UniProtKB/TrEMBL annotation:
Gene3D superfamilies: HAD superfamily/HAD-like
Protein name: Haloacid dehalogenase-like hydrolase domain-containing 5
PANTHER family named in the record: CDP-DIACYLGLYCEROL--GLYCEROL-3-PHOSPHATE 3-PHOSPHATIDYLTRANSFERASE-RELATED, HALOACID DEHALOGENASE-LIKE HYDROLASE DOMAIN-CONTAINING 5
Keywords: Signal
Originating organism: Mustela putorius furo
Sequence similarity: Belongs to the HAD-like hydrolase superfamily.
Lineage, opening ranks: Eukaryota, Metazoa, Chordata, Craniata, Vertebrata
Amino acid sequence: MAVLRSLAAVRAAPGLWWRAARASLGLQGRCLGRGYSVDAAQGFSSSVQSPPTFGFLLDIDGVLVRGHRVIPAALEAFRRLVNAHGQLRVPVVFVTNAGNILQHSKAQELSALLGFKVEPDQVILSHSPMKLFSQYHNKRMLVSGQGPVVENARVLGFENVVTVDELRMAFPVLDMVDLQRRPKTTPLLRNDFPAIEGVLLLGEPVRWETSLQLIMDVLLSNGNPGTGLATAPYPHLPVLASNMDLLWMAEAKMPSDNPMSDVYGANLFHKYLQMAKHGGAEERGASGLWKQRPSATQSCASILVCTGVYNPKGPEPTRPTQEAEAAPFHGHRDFSFSPGLMEASHIVNDVNEAVQLVFHKEGWAL
């Protein structure tokens, strides 16, 4: 869970709270200020006492739900967050590494589970930031994942996508791992298949072997899998991957959360905000990356709850040593690793306790 601190300038726009929270992650629109993250959470609030200058970014799996079951503490938390008219006193944004569902479908799912209307703009999926990659939106992209991948790609702005199944049908001899699907006769080679210009990974696919095989063939052939390989092209075609986290806590007893994606991400966002505040955040426009809009967000504090993977009775984590820092790094290659960023600002039992903690710190009546 993360909590954001916002500026007074946005207080007069309660209808845009969650849009502001999205913008603080670099997605769109104006953004707010300070925040708190429960395993990854952020948002804002309003009541008669005073307009809020903070809000929540709420992770979903392990914080609000376990699989399809609501964690009881989440219902208690939203009794504090939602007023008698079914409106949020404190604006909330729901953040998830899931990408196998449409944004409005996830909002409907959360509405049914939590008992109040969640708007689609309050939901940030793992691939939502890809709306920013406009330089690839008109390119022919191979899309891999599960669920409504084509619809999700188009919502993100990608206008010309081809699925792994469409590519496999065009070049059946490339799908060589699954012996049952190998063609019994050699099909004619296609020479009318438009070249692929990039790869779009919207989460994990069901058939890993097929997706990996065809993606590698596309990269090695520079987007023309029907041709022979002379030399491996470098740099290869762009690969836009939306989710590095394949571990989460659902109904199964085997835990899984990746500490490099939730608490680390919230703390890294806070670090970025501090750099931006002091003029140290890097902007690159000419290189093809987007320019980040100036953020009104001041800070983001991470709150770790014990209803997910984290076990407070587990062994005490060892303090970072030179040997530990040299251990394999499981984060994103663009992350600079800092052991301190894996430590949450606060550790509480559940999301209800987290909300009470934030209300107390912000001077809000429970």
